[in-house]
Structure prediction request, 372 residues.
Amino acid sequence: MLSEFPLKASFLCIPFIIALISISYPPALNAKITGPCANCHTMHNSQNGSPMAAYGASGEAWKVSGPNPSLTRGTCLGCHGIGTAKIVNIGGSDIPQVWHTDGSGDLAGGNFAYITGAKGSGASNRKGHNVIDLGAAYLEDVITGFPPGHDHGPTRDTLTCAESGGCHAKNSSTGIKGAHHQNVDGKCDVADKVYNSYRFLLGVKGYENNGTYKWQNKDATNHNEYFGATAPMSISSSSSPCTSCHGSSGWNPQNNTISGFCGMCHRDFHSLQGIGGSTSSPFKRHPADVTLKAAGEYAAYTTYSVEAPVARTVVPDAMSNVVTPGTDVVMCLSCHVAHASDYPDMLRWDYNTMVAGGGGSGGCFTCHTQKN
Ligand code: HEC
Ligand code: HEC
Ligand code: HEC
Ligand code: HEC
Ligand code: HEC
Ligand code: HEC
Prediction:
């Protein structure tokens, strides 16, 4: 269908002119998306009398819909859940995938296909966030109410990718609009708009892996860098100001950390009150946004592990394979992924294999190096 669009010779000059201009300027900070408009947009959702908004070729109902906001040829999952590879290239534009069967691994957020069973050890609603975009068959999470640890917010029946009820693009006036074309790559340390926040998560800072393994936590030297803090936010259950979470442009974590972001919905699992009132042991819940001590068993975690990543308290200029106990912090994503994994509670590893005194490694033992 795309081949029916005539490419005029004069259009072909434009990339050449842009290339010439960019020689005399420093590399662009904005990794704006590229490619013909028709790759991603349809003006009427119709050509030759057939709808054009249908990227998911295999016919799942949730991939075939339209017309869509911003005239896109897919819904969020229509473009990001095409089903085959973890990165799909359509006519020159790479699209990161969050629902796919690629045997070579997943992107950093995980893979919703573990919930549906298209990939992994079998379908289970316990393996991740049951976004409604997956369809009615995947709504039956045993967690029926508000997010565990909180008294309001979305439920399994309203949780979705973006905007209201979602995680991405929480800006209440713009939503996702404009984020893709302005996307800031690499260092995201402004985070006052959706496009300059880490992965379009409003208010979250971080460093996005933009090297060979873009969007991936591949190994010690190739991974996203997450932003953390030395103390979680103080949000008590009843008397806290609503502005701890609800900012003027939409809800976002006031401390700009990825754990604070999870804490917008899972308050007590993040907040200072929830972990026991202070950043010192003993805790009542496993802390996040608390420093790895430079002593004891934590001092031995010095090479970054993608099995239990740490967060940095300053957004770095580049990826690093070094962990610095005494400086780096534990975060929600040290143990969990964000979308779904092949394990219950969307953990990074099988919790059943974490056996004290059993000589194991990885997972909990990455930090608790003397409990094996
Ligand atoms: C028409 C296809 C299309 C649709 C529809 C679409 N996206 Fe994207 N998305 C892309 C492409 C292409 C990129 C890569 C952008 C880049 O490389 O800067 C991307 C990147 C992203 C990223 C990663 C940004 C980063 O930091 O690298 C997120 C998050 C995202 N999209 C979320 C969404 C959400 C949520 C929706 C639905 C509201 C959505 N997308 C709809 C094509 C699409
Ligand atoms: C720990 C973070 C947090 C705090 C504190 C908080 N909220 Fe919320 N609130 C949320 C989240 C997350 C949502 C879900 C937004 C969505 O789904 O788009 C939400 C949604 C809402 C909604 C929309 C209806 C709903 O239940 O989804 C209202 C109204 C609301 N909050 C009011 C308040 C008020 C009033 C306060 C202060 C008493 C408050 N919130 C404090 C996190 C918080
Ligand atoms: C690789 C995919 C992709 C290509 C190519 C692409 N767009 Fe988009 N565009 C999107 C997505 C996804 C959205 C909706 C989400 C958003 O705004 O972040 C969007 C939103 C828009 C919007 C509304 C938001 C804004 O940024 O103003 C306009 C206008 C737009 N595109 C125009 C264009 C034009 C014109 C072209 C060709 C010159 C083009 N796009 C090429 C993916 C693409
Ligand atoms: C917009 C609100 C929202 C945000 C933000 C959010 N969650 Fe959730 N989470 C939910 C809801 C609702 C459920 C229960 C329904 C479900 O599992 O789909 C849930 C369930 C979970 C579960 C249990 C999954 C299961 O089925 O057993 C884990 C683990 C989890 N979240 C971790 C996180 C982590 C880690 C983050 C941050 C990366 C996070 N959540 C951010 C709303 C949210
Ligand atoms: C990224 C590093 C990291 C990982 C992975 C990790 N922890 Fe921790 N854990 C910590 C830190 C840091 C503390 C706080 C220690 C302190 O300040 O005394 C802690 C504290 C604890 C505590 C004691 C709380 C207290 O009151 O002192 C327990 C129990 C614990 N972790 C269990 C686990 C288990 C079980 C796992 C695997 C599911 C795990 N941890 C994974 C870093 C980690
Ligand atoms: C040290 C590893 C670790 C860290 C860090 C961690 N979790 Fe968990 N999480 C677990 C484990 C293990 C479970 C399984 C239930 C349990 O042991 O309480 C779990 C369960 C959950 C659940 C499901 C609860 C339910 O009722 O099914 C949610 C939601 C969740 N975690 C959110 C978070 C959030 C949000 C953060 C950061 C503020 C976080 N977790 C940090 C290991 C961790």
